[in-house]
């Protein structure tokens, strides 16, 4: 095609594009609607986004939150914390269940603490050399050295004694001497029951301070660079949503195991954003104690501590205050998201709303315009619940995450049924939320991936186009999860370059 025809074709495409994507003309407070991409896995790591980050952790299958069971090779029974903790410990269960499953807290490469189902830690009692499940806070007395040989382990006190299963099915600390790897009272089979938590906590604590610093500094300097902002702006992306952890507010010396340096990286993002005319949303993705128990909130062991402690909540507000103070006057800042994906099961609505109201006041204290973004609870919660509360009067945005994943409902849907779901359910919900007098709506996360196996490129393109068409209706806009990902179908860059995500805005690419 000659250059004249190419230009005509392009012009036609652009005209079509403006017709199909009217949102690009509508303004949100003087700004085009958000057409964004998340910078996931950068300042809050997730192993599945970049698995190689975790490759060199010694004893890498025993990270914080790994769930283990211990079976005595002589008794042929599992170690059990009766009632899930708070009582004595026995070695008397044939079949392991929750009382027999312990979450690891890692102290070092070979030192660990064992957390029972109910939250207490295995500890040593003064009487009778018994192991009990009674410590609420782990200290060195709850720390054990684990020696491994294939699937077998010895568990040793720091004082040198080994634990043993005795004939009366107790777990005691009085095995004297050095046990062999044959069948003896001090030898246990280690069963790794679940090993699915691989976030910032696991990485930092797994490597230990010095090595973690090298790994994270290198990752933060290379995973996202100015080039990415250039790429995004070329494709019409006008916003990045940047997940950060609460420890950013304590840079350069956050509490262990977190590693300083995320603040300098965020500063860089703001500089690159300014150069390439992109706006930034800062998203508090990981709050102290964890608001959802997942690796992306830097949970230590899968529990949700955030709502249980006023200290965690006030530390989160301190982080919001810190970020507001630092960036509120920066014209690149579009919004601050107060908390990502709090768990509906674990975070009561009243606690969350009160936090959101305080966070709103703090941001407003620094800026009258910056959008204050609140996220829906994940799990069994209706985003409508946040409309019934008055979080703030101006520039409040509700973030909902739309994945055709993570729910058994989507498991068996074929492509057509997925398309219908977008039109019938997502669009309907967006229309309902848009029409209420309240926060603007933001699809802060979505992805061009689904449960359909071996879908064709055309099917993916259609899925992507319908998502764009439907999510367009969101009054604040949308942002894709995520820019880069080892799983290529999640990777925005791959999707765009391989034409699996047919962004009409590609037409705007300069020729
Ligand atoms: C441990 O607790 C169980 C259940 O309460 C009890 O039956 C048993 O006697 C206790 N064992 C010891 C050694 O205290
Ligand atoms: C592991 O156990 C086997 C016997 O089961 C033994 O031969 C070997 O020396 C042990 N390895 C170490 C490192 O102790
Ligand atoms: C807002 O700022 C004022 C003056 O600095 C301060 O007294 C007030 O506590 C702040 N409010 C919030 C919610 O931070
Ligand atoms: C998908 O494709 C792979 C490789 O071509 C094949 O092994 C697999 O059975 C297919 N799965 C389905 C559900 O069709």
UniProtKB/TrEMBL annotation:
CDD domains, alphabetized: beta-trefoil_FSCN-like
Domain DUF7910: 59-192
InterPro entries per record: Actin-crosslinking, DUF7910, Fascin, GH, Glyco_hydro_5, Glyco_hydro_5_CS
GO molecular function: actin filament binding; hydrolase activity, hydrolyzing O-glycosyl compounds
Gene Ontology annotations for the cellular component aspect, listed alphabetically: actin cytoskeleton; cytoplasm
GO terms of biological process kind: actin filament bundle assembly; cell migration; establishment or maintenance of cell polarity; polysaccharide catabolic process
Keywords assigned by UniProt, alphabetized: Glycosidase, Hydrolase
Domain Glycoside hydrolase family: 221-486
Gene3D superfamilies (UniProt xref): 2.80.10.50, Glycosidases
Similarity comment: Belongs to the glycosyl hydrolase 5 (cellulase A) family.
PANTHER family linked: FASCIN, FASCIN-2
Name of the protein in its database record: Mannan endo-1,4-beta-mannosidase
Organism lineage string: Eukaryota, Viridiplantae, Streptophyta, Embryophyta, Tracheophyta
């Amino acid at each position: 095609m000659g250059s004249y025809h190419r230009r005509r074709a392009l012009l036609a495409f652009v005209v079509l594009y403006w017709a199909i994507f009217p949102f690009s003309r509508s303004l949100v407070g003087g700004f085009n609607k958000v057409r964004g991409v998340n910078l996931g896995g950068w300042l809050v790591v997730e192993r599945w986004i970049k698995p190689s980050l975790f490759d060199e952790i010694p004893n890498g299958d025993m990270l914080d939150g790994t769930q283990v069971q211990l079976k005595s090779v002589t008794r042929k029974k599992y170690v059990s914390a009766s009632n899930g903790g708070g009582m004595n410990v026995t070695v008397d269960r044939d079949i392991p269940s929750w009382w027999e499953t312990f979450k690891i807290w890692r102290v070092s490469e070979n030192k660990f603490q064992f957390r029972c189902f109910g939250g207490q830690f295995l500890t040593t009692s003064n009487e009778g050399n018994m192991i009990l499940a009674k410590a609420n806070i782990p200290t060195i007395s709850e720390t054990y050295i684990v020696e491994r040989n294939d699937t077998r382990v010895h568990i040793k006190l720091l004082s040198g004694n080994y634990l043993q299963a005795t004939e009366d099915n107790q777990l005691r600390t009085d095995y004297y001497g050095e046990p062999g790897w044959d069948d003896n009272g001090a030898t246990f089979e280690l069963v790794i029951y679940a090993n699915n938590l691989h976030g910032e906590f696991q990485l930092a604590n797994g490597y230990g301070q010095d090595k973690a610093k090298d790994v994270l500094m290198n990752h933060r300097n290379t995973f996202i660079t100015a080039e990415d902002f250039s790429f995004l702006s070329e494709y019409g992306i006008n916003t990045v949503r940047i997940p950060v952890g609460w420890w950013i507010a304590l840079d350069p010396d956050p509490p262990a195991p977190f590693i300083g340096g995320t603040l300098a990286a965020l500063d860089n993002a703001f500089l690159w954003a300014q150069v390439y005319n992109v706006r930034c949303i800062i998203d508090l993705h990981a709050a102290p104690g964890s608001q959802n128990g997942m690796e992306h909130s830097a949970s230590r062991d899968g529990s949700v501590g955030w709502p249980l402690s006023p200290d965690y909540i006030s530390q989160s507000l301190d982080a919001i205050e810190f970020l507001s103070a630092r960036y509120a006057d920066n014209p690149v800042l579009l919004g601050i998201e107060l908390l990502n994906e709090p768990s509906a099961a674990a975070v009561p609505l009243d606690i969350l709303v009160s936090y959101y109201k305080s966070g709103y006041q703090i941001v407003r204290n620094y800026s009258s315009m910056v959008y204050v973004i609140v996220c829906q609870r994940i799990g069994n919660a209706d985003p409508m619940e946040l409309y019934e509360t008055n979080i703030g009067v101006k520039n409040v945005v509700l973030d909902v995450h739309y994945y055709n994943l993570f729910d058994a409902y989507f498991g068996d849907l074929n492509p057509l049924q997925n398309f219908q779901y977008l039109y019938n359910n997502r669009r309907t919900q967006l229309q309902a939320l848009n029409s209420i007098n309240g926060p603007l709506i933001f699809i802060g996360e979505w992805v061009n991936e689904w449960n359909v196996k071996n879908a064709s490129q055309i099917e993916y393109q259609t899925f992507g186009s319908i998502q764009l068409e439907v999510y367009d209706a969101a009054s604040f806009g949308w942002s894709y999860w995520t820019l880069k990902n080892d799983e290529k179908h999640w990777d925005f860059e791959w999707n765009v370059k391989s034409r699996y995500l047919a962004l009409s805005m590609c037409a705007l690419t300069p020729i």
